Amino acid sequence: MGGRGAAGGSRTEATRRRILDAAEEEWARLDNVASSRGEWPTVAMSALAKRAGVAQSTVYEHFHSQGVLAASVLRRLAGPGVFDWADTAATAMSGIDAVGELVRRTADLFVRNRALASTVLAAAASYTFRHGPPADDAEDPRRVFDLPKVLADHLQRAVVDGDVRDDVDPSDAAASIFNLLLLRVMSRPHEAAGPTADHVLGLTLHGLVPR
Known about the structure:
Elements: H1 2-30, H2 45-52, H3 56-62, H4 66-87, H5 95-112, H6 114-131, H7 141-144, H8 147-161, H9 170-187, H10 193-208
């Protein structure tokens, strides 16, 4: 029984990885394609399922919505350079410097994956409008790609260090930085990651420092 259960779990994980691989390839294919109105295209779940070699219903068994799938792909892409870095190397920096570097790394991720990032932005905005602040919900794309929480942790360190005003709510400020970064990437499709990060940091961190 245990062996069969383990085998079933392995097959489930293999299917999940195959879907994630197919989704990453499909969004990458669309990344340089924009409609005549300048909108970023979205992945057709039927095409994604075909690429993964599974039924469309199987995709939805693993990922409840396109938004959750997109957030899962972006989370996987962000693992080494963003989330893993934030948990290791960033802790050796001051909180304020870690926030700056984290924004730069995330800007680079979003610029390299604009179509995917636009889908995550739309899904997060829709979920916020319908449900309010993030909750403990597996179908919430904001929980899957939880970068604002990572930003908030380092902003809290900056508050303790005295580099950020003590009346700043780190969670609220982190969400604002994250949303502004996403919007900047989507509204400036030809802007490189460096200027994008500089713009966002100039607008946000400047207002957070003690006066």
